[in-house]
Design brief:
Elements (H helix, E strand, L loop, with lengths): L9 E7 L5 H17 L3 E7 L3 H11 L3 E4 L10 H8 L9 H8 L1 H10 L7 E5 H6 L7 E5 L9 E3 L18 E6 L4 E8 L2 E9 L7 H5 L5 E3 L6 H17 L5 E8 L1 H5 L6 E7 L9 H8 L4 H10 L6
Parallel strand pairs: 1-2, 1-3
Antiparallel strand pairs: 4-7, 5-6, 5-7, 8-9, 8-11, 9-10, 11-12
């Protein structure tokens, strides 16, 4: 990693991109840019399109000391942009190339978590045709794209039903499909900042599933901070989030999503916590979770993004 020898004054915020999460990224970038200006930085917001030559030119024109990466989804969160910034020797926020790539690939991340003793839902990777041929797991189970975020493409196949979430022509997320047993219970998320967990929040939604609309539509979900959990469960959720962050090699800020199955506890089947995934570039919108958790820990949004740029680095 290249140490930074100059003070951070100029920050370029990357936003947009061309993934399914483009709109969310535009909002994250605008909010982060505003907070960074409030904190005293000179900010250039760059709307990223699928043209790396143009992006390099814009970065060279902006001459940033640090890049705040507010991109979400494929090509912005999966190591691609991180590799480009490494080549340019530009320090950037969030995780590096390898950790970003591992976290974005849910199948690989699951294997790493399991090997590290981090509990995950039973599951497997199948091809699209295998799923269409019949249930690979007993229902209810969850179908997920391997490398999308924000619950894009996620479907729950309920017990007693026989409908499939897509047909042979309507799955635009690649040949591989991740299938996981559905974990009943409560939706939790925990934020990590550097080498510490900031706290754990519970998410509830009248939609019954914390999908894309619940995440980003006003009133789509309700956040309870801190999560109303037994003290030992709350502490363990935070510990698992920090452990998941560390085993993937993440840096900066991340957010880990978990499920808490209280029936498992009542039946003596462990503590009921399961890690779903690590978000290496969590949302920074008005309804985002990490700024809310940080605020409860006494860290304002401008303070949060300032810490992120001051601790930015690259793997050049």
């Amino acid at each position: 990693m290249s140490p930074r020898t100059t003070p951070v004054r100029n920050v370029a915020v990357l936003k947009g991109g061309w993934s399914t999460e483009q709109d969310v990224s535009l909002r994250s970038g605008a909010a982060a840019g505003e907070a960074l200006r409030e904190a005293g930085y000179n900010v250039t917001e760059i709307t990223v399109r699928r043209d790396p030559v143009h992006l390099v030119g814009e970065l060279q024109a902006a001459r940033p000391h640090v890049v705040f990466n507010a991109l979400h989804g494929r090509f912005g969160e999966d190591g691609c942009i991180q590799g480009l910034l490494d080549i340019l020797e530009l320090p950037y926020t969030h995780s590096g190339l390898l950790a970003s790539s591992l976290a974005m690939d849910k199948a690989y991340a699951r294997r790493i978590f399991a090997q590290a003793g981090i509990p995950v839902a039973p599951g497997l990777t199948v091809t699209r045709d295998q799923l269409l041929a019949g249930d690979p797991l007993p229902r209810p189970y969850v179908v997920k794209p391997i490398n999308e975020g924000s619950s894009v493409g996620v479907h729950i196949l309920k017990q007693g039903g026989n409908a499939l979430p897509f047909d042979a022509q309507s799955w635009p997320y690649g040949e591989q499909v991740l299938v996981e047993a559905f974990i009943p219970g409560r939706e939790l998320t925990a934020a990590v900042m550097g080498d510490r967990a900031l706290g754990c929040l519970e998410i509830t939604s009248d939609r019954g599933f914390y999908d894309y609309e619940a995440k980003y539509a006003p009133g789509g979900s309700r956040h309870i901070m801190p999560a109303p959990l037994p003290a030992e469960i709350y502490e363990e959720a935070c510990r698992l989030a920090l452990s998941a962050h560390q085993v993937l090699g993440c840096r900066g800020v991340s957010r880990t999503d978990l499920r808490y199955d209280e029936t498992a506890v009542a039946e003596g089947r462990g503590n009921g916590l399961y890690v779903l995934e690590v978000n290496t570039q969590p949302g920074m919108t008005a309804t985002s979770l990490v700024p809310e958790i940080a605020a409860f820990a006494g860290i304002s949004f401008p303070q949060l993004v300032s810490w992120m740029v001051e601790n930015a680095t690259c793997d050049a």
